[in-house]
């Protein structure tokens, strides 16, 4: 599936899609629509990290 096909299937705008690609925040609703379009569970593509552990993450 191409990026354009994913954006269309998930009903996500280009701006929102590029926010994700650039590591910016998006709503949970957007993430769930992308998961639905990819036929996967949100746990398969995202990991929850405690705020205390965020400083230990590298880019």
Shape: globular
Rg: 13 Å
What is the succession of H and E elements?
HHHH
Query: Helix proportion of residues, in percent?
Result: 40-55%
- Largest sheet data: none
The class by helix and strand makeup works out as: mainly alpha
Q: How far is it from the N-terminal to the C-terminal residue, by CA?
A: 26 Å
Mean pLDDT: 87
Number of strands: 0
Uncertain regions: pLDDT < 50 for 5+ in a row?
Answer: none
Strand content: under 5%
Alpha plus pi helix count: 4
Number of domains: 1
In words, what does this structure look like?
The chain has one domain. It is built from 4 helices and no strands. The protein has helices at about 5-10, 15-20, 30-40, 40-45. Helix 1 crosses helix 3.
Record keyword descriptors for this entry:
single chain; 59 residues; mainly alpha; globular
Please render the helix and strand layout as text.
Blueprint (H helix, E strand, L loop, with lengths): L2 H8 L3 H8 L6 H11 L3 H4 L14
Helix pairs in contact: 1-3
Describe, in short, the structure shown.
This protein has 59 residues and is mainly α. It has helices at residues 3-10, 14-21, 28-38, 42-45. Helices cover 53% and strands 0% of the residues.
């Amino acid at each position: 599936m191409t990026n354009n096909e994913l954006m269309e299937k998930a009903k996500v705008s280009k701006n929102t899609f590029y926010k994700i690609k650039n590591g910016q925040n998006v709503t949970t609703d957007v993430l769930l629509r992308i998961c639905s379009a990819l036929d996967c569970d949100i746990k398969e593509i995202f990991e929850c990290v405690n705020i205390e552990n965020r400083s230990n993450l590298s880019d």
